[in-house]
Amino acid sequence: MAEEDTSRDFTSNIGRIYLVYTGGFAAFVLFLAALEQFGVSNQVIGYLFVFFTLAIYAGIGILSRTMQVGEYYVAGRRVPAVYNGMATASDWMSGASFVGMAGTLYVLGYDGLAFVIGWTGGYVLVAVLVAPYLRKFGAYTIPDFLGARYGGHMARTIGILILFCCSFTYVTAQIYATGIIASRFLGMSFELAVFVGLLGILVCSMLGGMRAVTWTQVAQYIVLIVAYLVPVILLAQMTTGVPVPQVMYGEILQEITALETSLVEKGLAKASEITPHLQPYSSYDTLNFFALVLCLMVGTASLPHILMRYFTTPSVKDARRSVGWSLLFIFFLYFTAPAYAAFAKLEIYQNVIGAPLEELPGWIYTYGQIGLVKICGIEATTLEAVRAACLAKGDTTGILSFSDFSINRDVIVIATPEIAGLPYVVAGLVAAGGLAAALSTADGLLLAIANALSHDIYYRMVDPKASTKRRLIIARVMLVGVAGLAAWVASTKPSDILSMVAWAFSLAAAGFFPALVLGIWWKRASAAGAIAGMVSGFGLTLFYLIATQYGGMTPWLGIQNISAGIFGMPLGFAVTWAVSLMTAPPSPKTEAMIEAIRVPKGGTYMDK
Amino acid sequence: MNAGDKAAGDKAAQHNADYWPRTRRLMLITIAIWAVLGFGIHFFVTAFNDIVILGFPLGFYLAAQGALIGFVILIFWFSRKQEELDSRYGMAEDE
Fold first, then answer.
1. Could you give the residue ranges of the DSSP H alpha helices within chain B?
2. A187-194: which pairs have CB atoms within 8 A and are 24 or more residues apart?
3. How many domains does chain B contain in total?
4. Exposure letters A214-231 (e unless 16+ CB within 10 A, then b)
5. Does ipTM surpass 0.90 in this model?
6. For chain A, what is the total number of helices (H) and then of strands (E)?
7. At what angle do helices B67-88 and A316-334 cross, to 10 degrees?
8. pLDDT tens for residues A351-390?
9. Residue B43, in any domain of the structure
10. Per the domain annotation, does B93 fall within a domain?
11. Range of the structural domain that residue B67 is part of
12. Is residue B84 part of a domain?
């Protein structure tokens, strides 16, 4: 009872609480900036950033602890649309979005925009086709819906398998990212940093489940968006005199295009080496570009850790609106990423390529020392080393040419504070933001996996009579178990797993999308049809991924395997359709259920 | 049940029966706009790129920002339309 009172208090004061929190965070950043001026070392500032933010998340996690099933699985369905939007945004934007997106755009130019479009447009599908209906249904997990709609444990079990395949590699990559960020900024060993990250994830999720994850994700969104916007706003102010990078990078784009030609004219680069930043389809062909956009969009509308966020709103109407808010909050980061890429490219084309080795900017060596910038084939640790390497290559001019220079994509965001000559506190802020992005996504994914294990396997299939207390204990044991396993895998630095993250979208798109959409929009979709559709769509996608990645199979139509879902998804639809028509239609009870979830009126279906 | 009641009942049933086709039509319209924003306009990048505003070639701008703004507006527009349908057909949730 007391728990309900405090949470109602909290809900009505929520705006004020997060306003104070944001103000407090700004004050903390200014305080650290002052400390830096008084000569406190970078390392101490880095540690203060990480530990302060982790302590806040842990505090929220502990305050949101709960012993109620509804609170643990769906935050009591009391999360207002706007805040659920913020939570979804940080759930969605991973460490890779935060750190790597701008770098991808730097490397690929226009073609990198496939990720920007693909990772935003999918929310239209979420709002229109899926989320409101799943909210009305009132399940705790996606397999729970599949189990109810397609009557039985078979559909549920396949759902759990697909969910596990999509989410586990993804969560491993998030924990890996926390390790990288913490080790880079704090100088601790990678393995230790992974377990610090694991701790950060568990304190947010273990005691309060969805309720705790929701409110920490809102806090993490605020940190990550501030951290993403501040450096590039300051950089735009310094470069162009106007602190609106998203508008001002237009003229930067023109300068880049001019530099692309002049670098070639000066003999610093070959025309074939440079990817023209503005020209479409220079890295991907048209077919691959559109296939990638489609797979990322449909994948967005199929990933369980995103869909389950919309189970937490107070109503169907709020679920719909909340999708709009989610995309708005995501938009703030994604429309800034191309600006990051443009400003960094200008710096590199202007001040790095064609510069005498003696005059390279200092940030080159800062990131060379941790292996992220290479010059003449070696890590750019010192001027002497670089000079020797270039001489050994037979380059006697002492001028850096385009082909001698290579940069890790992650550097684009991380190095911006230093490129702009900003104090270290801004770099610390970026680290805190990256950490927030990785932790919030990891929390959402872990919850999706652990809830499927505890709710769908244990409660629905093993022991349906389990007491509330027992269910919640099992849920937590699963959470710690999955988190520990993911952290252990991440600590082995599995390069394969990292390249598999992008696969999650194709696997989810082919495995879940046909079953979810047809389950809601086509009454005739039968259990046998959906099961056959999920198995064939997911199976074909998995086969294509493995055969092209490891089996040396020639890609069909030249489609790269990141867009494997382009084959599996239509197959999933076709098989579900064909098999449904060949088998018995769903029972009247199932039909009634579909009727019920199609109208917002009347309360959640599952509670009846 | 007299004839008048029956007619009213039929009318109400007919009214309810319209709700789902209307919802489906709104879904199809929204998905069509989504397809234009997500795919349609990107077929014409090269042509659009000849138009330059504030330094942005239009084709690049539409992919980097324009489509995204369109998606955000589209979702809020869709939500409003669907809410109108819900209340017109008496399918909205009780507040």
1. 3-38, 45-48, 58-61, 67-88
2. A187/A43, A187/A46, A190/A491, A190/A493, A191/A491, A194/A487, A194/A490, A194/A491
3. 1
4. bbbbbbbbbbbbbbbbbb
5. yes
6. 27, 3
7. 170
8. 888 888 888 888 888 888 878 888 888 888 888 888 888 8
9. yes
10. no
11. 3-88
12. yes
Structure tokens at A294: 């489609």
The Cα of A113 is separated from the nearest Cα of chain B by a number of Å equal to 6
Which residues are CB-contacts of B52 (< 8 A; sequence separation ≥ 6)?
Answer: A254, B58
Answer whether A526's CB lies under 8 Å from A579's CB.
Answer: yes
Chain B: give the shortest CA distance to residue A537, in Å.
22
Lowest mean pLDDT, pick from A150-154, A179-183, A471-475, B83-87? A179-183
Name, in order, each residue with C-beta under 8 angstroms of B26's C-beta and a sequence gap of 6 or more.
B78, B81, B82, B85
Match 């046909």 to its residue by tokens.
A514
The CA-CA-CA angle for residues A122, A128, A133, to 5°, reads 115
pLDDT tens digits for range A306-349: 999 999 999 999 999 999 999 999 999 999 999 999 998 898 88
A179 CB-contact burial (10 Å; exposed 0-12 / middle 13-18 / buried 19+): buried
- Residue at token pair 């965070």: A25
pTM, to two decimals: 0.92
Please enumerate in sequence order all residues whose Cβ is within 8 A of that of A37, keeping only pairs 6 or more positions apart, or say none: A423
B25 CB-near residues (< 8 Å, 6+ apart):
none
A124·B54 Cβ contact <8 A: no
Nearest alpha-carbon partner for A244 in B54, B26, B18, B70? B54
Res. A114: pLDDT tops 50: yes
Q: Which of A108, A413, A455, A425 is nearest to A289 (CA)?
A: A108
B15, B50, B60: best to mutate for the A interface, most A CBs within 10 A: B60
Q: Which residues of A touch B42 (CB under 8 A)?
A: 117, 280, 289-290, 293
Domains parsed from chain A with CATH numbers: 2-28+42-242+281-341+435-493 (1.20.1730.10)
- Residues of chain A with C-beta less than 8 angstroms from the C-beta of B45: 110, 280
